[in-house]
Amino acid sequence: MSVGTILSGCSRAPADGGANVSQLDGGAQGPASSAGIATEAKFTQGSRVDRGFVVDDSLDVGGRTLHFSLHVPDGYDGSAAYRLYVSCPGWEGLYFQGVGANLVEDFPFVANDYIPNMIVASPQLDDWGQQSADDVVALTEWLLATYNIDAGHVYLSGNSGGGETISLVLGQRPDLYRRALHTISRWDGNLDVLTDAQVPVYMAIGLHDDYYGSDPDRATYQQICDAYRQKGLTDAQISELVVLDVKPDSYFTDHGRSAGASQHAGGGALFPHDSDIMGWLFRD
Question: Which residue numbers delimit the Peptidase S9 prolyl oligopeptidase catalytic domain (predicted)?
């Protein structure tokens, strides 16, 4: 199997199941800082189920309606704190594409293979900009306030346009998340806020990604490295905080993709099934 160019420690980059329908039997609630949004928000539970996810939940908060899919494991009864994973889809999963279109991506469905006792949410956003970033923050805070969540183990990922969105999220509320996975995307968010919070980030993309290219991630990686060096961190410390994984052409062909096929689409299909990538996100 081909191995990508995986950089950590700031090396220089080379040029080249069944749903738990009683979702709101929450038990103990999350942090007090998130409690306000729970009292302000109006939740409407959906009725459609897809592979263990209630597809069409909605939350009215701040004059907006947030649409999302939610999986609460059958064993959850509120007595023990569960972890939380928020997975933001790309353009094909936005709300205008149709209810449940976010679940064409496999990221939400593989999460419980790594951590069984984890609630998984997949928002259907309106775009990949600031309003959607605000919506992700609002949804995360509502989930923290509504369910018994281990607030120290909240994971975030974004694929393609969703990666742009989570970069904005991490540029405003990185304190909500333990780790973040940024796939086939580019970084739009505030790196000063991210590096002040020292939230670990893994960026994965194809060498010849046909939508973004790999150069934006390389540049972001170097900026993050430089910021951490200015803070006095060692390369060993930095390697725990940022990883750049640029997959070569052979990665895609070795995984059954045709030579010359879209690496952007290929990354979206292959990365959720790459245990090195997903294992990093959920490793602690």
Answer: 127-183
- Would residue 249 count as lying in a domain? yes
φ/ψ (deg, to 5) at 271: -60, -40
**CATH code: domain of residue 105:** 3.40.50.1820
Which range marks the domain in which residue 202 is found? 31-281
pLDDT at 275 over 50: yes
110-137: pLDDT as tens digits: 999 999 999 999 999 988 889 999 999 9
The structural domain count of the chain equals 1
Whether residue 8 lies inside any domain: the answer is no
Residue 2 lies in a domain: no
Q: pTM to 2 decimals?
A: 0.88
Q: Is residue 140 part of a domain?
A: yes
Instruction: Give CA–CA dist 180/186, Å, rounded.
Output: 14
Q: What is the pLDDT of residues 148-207, one digit of tens each?
A: 999 999 999 999 999 999 999 999 999 999 999 999 999 999 999 999 999 999 999 999
Given a contact cutoff of 8 angstroms between Cβ atoms, the answer to whether 69 and 124 are in contact is: yes
